[in-house]
UniProtKB/TrEMBL annotation:
Keywords: Hydrolase. This is Cysteine hydrolase. GO terms for molecular function: hydrolase activity. It comes from Thalassospira marina. It holds the Pfam family Isochorismatase. It comes from the Bacteria. The keyword Hydrolase applies.
Length: 196
């Protein structure tokens, strides 16, 4: 686990903390990952990030350190880096993980509670893996979570019987399973309107 935090200005804790999960260049590699859905995800995530920065909200970045040397997310590869729009700025916290949950092997929960933050807005990659796991765990830990469903995407998956499950189907099913019990699933536009 590697964490870097530089506090340069007070943040507005009346906003939920915005958690951006795994916006890394390596997820562009569709040969490795397969076909994806939601080509608008990056733009929606960027809109959320710009709004949070403009309002002085708490911004938290999470990135995945794969333990598989073949993975585009293996540390040391250029593809491990954050996308340009999601590069952390001074004062924004960054956490590294090597499992699906942003809460395992990091001090994320402890740091949020130390700052009396109990509300989160989450977006990122992929809907069915790290976003799903982190959102479920946040809900189970008692955080009030909003998931920006249109600021996430995932990839085609192969069923054990050999059927290829379309990324959009995977995305929709996971948003449906998270909705209500673990998070409120909203669009980026609705989130921005709610906190404007």
């Amino acid at each position: 686990m590697n964490q870097n935090q530089i506090d340069v200005a007070p943040v507005d804790n009346s906003l939920p903390a915005l958690i951006l999960i795994d916006w890394q260049i390596g997820f562009r590699d569709l040969i490795y990952w397969g076909q994806r859905n939601n080509q608008d995800a990056e733009g929606n995530a960027q809109n959320l990030l710009s709004f949070w920065r403009e309002k002085g909200g708490r911004v938290i970045h999470v990135h995945h350190d794969s333990q598989n040397p073949v993975s585009p997310l293996f540390p040391g590869k250029d593809s491990h880096a954050f996308e340009e729009f999601a590069q952390p700025l001074a004062g924004e916290t960054s956490y590294s993980k090597n499992v699906n949950s942003a809460f395992i092997g990091t001090t994320l929960e402890r740091d949020l509670r130390a700052d009396d933050i109990d509300k989160l807005v989450v977006c990122g990659i992929s809907t069915d893996h790290c976003v799903n796991t982190s959102t479920r765990m946040a809900g189970n830990l008692g955080f009030d979570v909003i998931l920006a469903g249109d600021a996430c995407f995932c990839f085609d998956r192969t069923h054990p019987d050999g059927r290829v499950m379309a990324a959009q189907t995977i995305h929709d099913v996971h948003l449906a399973s998270l909705s209500g019990e673990f998070a409120r699933v909203l669009t980026t536009a609705n989130i921005l309107s709610a906190f404007a």
